[in-house]
């Protein structure tokens, strides 16, 4: 890999102290220069050595080699396990790695792949990692928030809180069910996108022959048909996503109504005060947001990431040659 730098501008974060890193003061010279005039490419800092494609690629290569040489022949190589070993909780920088691997694919791999599939893998699939890595911490923070909210509501409302909490708890299995459906539809959408990208790559490669024989309309109809199938599957995916997210917007209102109705039915309507109502509504909104938005989005993002991992592993399986 060509590691020649066009401009040598060391990154100041390497020499910044703790306070400078904490308050991002090491960026002040760049901001000051941008305020005075237009920033040029030469003004940008070099990438930190720990973030360079060479360092991260070698880590992942070593982890994957370890997976390929498992002591037990029954245990298959797992790309997700290799990612975890190489990077842990850090963002998984796969863009440059996929590019390097695509440039060194074996003949067998090239026969099973296309430029369109590689571009789709790099542009759409790898980008899902950035989205998915925003949510893993919510998977362990959200249960703590739910426990604190439930204890607080029980302390303030007593048994009347269970009527509203039961609605929130009933939504949880539904969210995970729709999360699994979303993962399946997302995988089907990726298959349709790969087919369309493959055909488009072949059309662009043979555009002269197509123009020579006046095949524009037949190939145009073919692309239109593939795109229509892709949009149809994408629409189904968004329907599932809407069914997963939709109940949140009604759950907070319905839960507030249920707790008020329960108070009236058990004869404690005299204890309802404006301060209690505002407090309970705020807590229920937090609880519904956690259970109805954060947890489903975390599950959905992780499901997408697993689909991407399977696709990347499938593209690497025929030949994972050394690329550094």
TrEMBL record:
- Location (main, coarse): membrane
Q: Write one Gene Ontology MF term.
A: ABC-type transporter activity
- Keyword Transport listed: yes
Q: Where is the ABC transmembrane type-1 domain?
A: 103-303
Q: Membrane topology type, per the record? A: Multi-pass membrane protein
Family assignment from sequence similarity: Belongs to the ABC transporter superfamily. ABCC family. Conjugate transporter (TC 3.A.1.208) subfamily.
Q: What is this protein called?
A: Multidrug resistance-associated protein 4
Q: Which organism is it from?
A: Elysia marginata
């Amino acid at each position: 890999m060509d590691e020649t730098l066009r401009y040598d501008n060391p990154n100041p974060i390497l020499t910044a102290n703790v306070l400078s890193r904490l308050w991002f003061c090491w960026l002040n010279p760049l901001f000051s220069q941008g305020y005075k005039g237009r920033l040029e490419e030469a003004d940008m800092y070099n990438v930190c050595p720990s973030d360079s494609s060479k360092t991260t690629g070698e880590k992942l290569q070593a982890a994957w080699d370890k997976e390929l040489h498992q002591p037990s022949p029954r245990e298959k190589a797992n790309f997700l396990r290799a990612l975890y070993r190489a990077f842990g909780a850090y963002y998984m920088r796969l863009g440059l790695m996929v590019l390097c691997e695509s440039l060194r694919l074996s003949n067998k791999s090239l026969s099973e792949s296309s430029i369109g599939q590689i571009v789709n893998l790099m542009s759409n699939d790898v980008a899902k990692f950035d989205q998915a890595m925003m949510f893993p911490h919510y998977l362990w923070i959200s249960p703590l928030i739910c426990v604190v909210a439930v204890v607080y509501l029980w302390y303030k409302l007593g048994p009347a809180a269970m009527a509203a909490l039961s609605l929130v708890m009933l939504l949880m299995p539904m969210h995970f069910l729709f999360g699994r459906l979303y993962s399946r539809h997302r995988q089907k959408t990726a298959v349709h996108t790969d087919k369309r990208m493959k055909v488009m790559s072949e059309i662009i490669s043979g555009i002269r022959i197509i123009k020579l024989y006046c095949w524009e309309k037949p190939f145009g109809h073919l692309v239109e048909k593939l795109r229509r199938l892709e949009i149809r599957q994408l629409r189904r995916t968004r329907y599932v996503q809407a069914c997963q997210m939709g109940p949140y917007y009604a759950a907070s209102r319905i839960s507030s109504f249920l707790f008020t109705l329960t108070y009236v039915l058990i004869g404690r309507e005299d204890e309802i005060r404006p301060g209690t109502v505002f407090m309970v509504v705020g807590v229920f909104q937090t609880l519904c947001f956690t259970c109805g938005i954060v947890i489903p989005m975390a599950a959905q993002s992780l499901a997408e990431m697993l689909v991407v991992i399977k696709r990347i592993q499938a593209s690497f399986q025929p030949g994972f040659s050394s690329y550094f």
